[in-house]
Fold this sequence. Notes:
Blueprint: E1 24-26, H1 36-45, E2 49-51, E3 71-75, H2 83-92, E4 96-98, E5 107-110, H3 116-123, E6 127-129, H4 131-140, H5 145-167, H6 170-176, E7 184-188, H7 195-204, E8 208-210, E9 219-222, H8 228-236, E10 240-241, H9 243-250
Amino acid sequence: GQVMSGVSKNVRFQDSEMSLSGKKVCLTGTLTQLKRAEAKSKIEDAGGQVMSGVSKNVRFQDSEMSLSGKKVCLTGTLTQLKRAEAKSKIEDAGGQVMSGVSKNVDIVVAGESAGSKLEKAESLGLEVWDEDQLIAALGSSGGGAAKKASAKKRAAPAKEKKEPAKKAKPAAKKTGGGKLAGKKFCITGTLTQPRAKIVALIEEHGGSCVGAVSKNVDYLISGDKTGSKQSKAESLGIPIWCEAELDEAIE
């Protein structure tokens, strides 16, 4: 007989294992011929079930889980790792953690209560992982002392570049104090806590809040149903945080 690499009208016999009926499938990576939503719909129409994470119950999955050279954005609340720990581990595995979602991001890791960042990632067709997939990728990535040292060396210049910006606001630091000292925040969208409480929390830790987005704003706190403020922040390259990221920053 002759073994063919693909199924066509010329193939007389084919493996019944190609059926998706009753199968659990996890999608990862960038799909070139189908949009992710379209692929999900077709799999479900064929009797399959699309899973958000990789586990022993998934029958088919992509083996590409390496974080090396990937730009990763974290959103939502992580339950198994602290955000700072996740960031450190991603960098040790050769990845780079980004503060906002854009077409340049390779992977968005969505924890619980992920909001507008997840919606934007899906609209851009970006690869979205849950926390279990991140942990699986961290476990499969190599990394020893040499890689860790290399990641720290790469991170050091970035920290040195940020120092002048902190020194440029001595007055704010003296009056505020705290982990958010000297930082200006703008809030947009629907939050899970009252806006007044978020403002009080920021001010309690030395930060300040303004009503409009400008180049002088350091961070945008974004909830659901955001509008023009988030678009402007993205165009100015202002880091965008969800509520969970704000909580992590003041821990």
